[in-house]
# Entry
Amino acid sequence: MMFTINNLHAAPWSFPRMLAVAAATALGCVAPLSVQASAEQPGPRFVDLVDHPSQEANWDRFHALEDGLAAAFFTQCRDDGCRPRHLLWPLQLRCSVRVADATVVACIWVIGGSDLQVAASGRIDPDLRVWHCPLPMPLPVAVDAFHAALEVPDPLAVRLPGAGSTLLLGLKDCLATPGSAT
# Structure
């Protein structure tokens, strides 16, 4: 539900403020306000891949892609763990899309890991880590081409345009670092 006073449109929680502005305007305390057309406002230069080409328009396709990468992660990393001593879990993937040319320019995949050690005293010492792993993609990739490249049975075997390594090798390189302790 939207309210309109003096050509101002606002959600209900801002109604008291709008009422104060309208009263002040009516009393001549402030000049009437005008709303500029949103077309005159420059849009964002970059958006989340989920929000390309409009807010949450790519929701289902992006989350299917994220789920496919997570499934491949569990298949590839189950045996060797991609890094010794840690139980790893893919937490979240986010990609940045440059609006002007509809290209994916960067992606970060957050991986969480834990390792629990039982001390002789009975105390359990957790080693919790987080890795922020960029997908190896030195060149921007058109949104549809990005999706198509990763909508395959083994997306971690994919080498994105211009990349020197597959996603799996880039992931393993990232996980070979200490990660951030939490």
Remarks:
- The chain has two domains: 3-40, 46-181.
- Residues 3-40 form one domain.
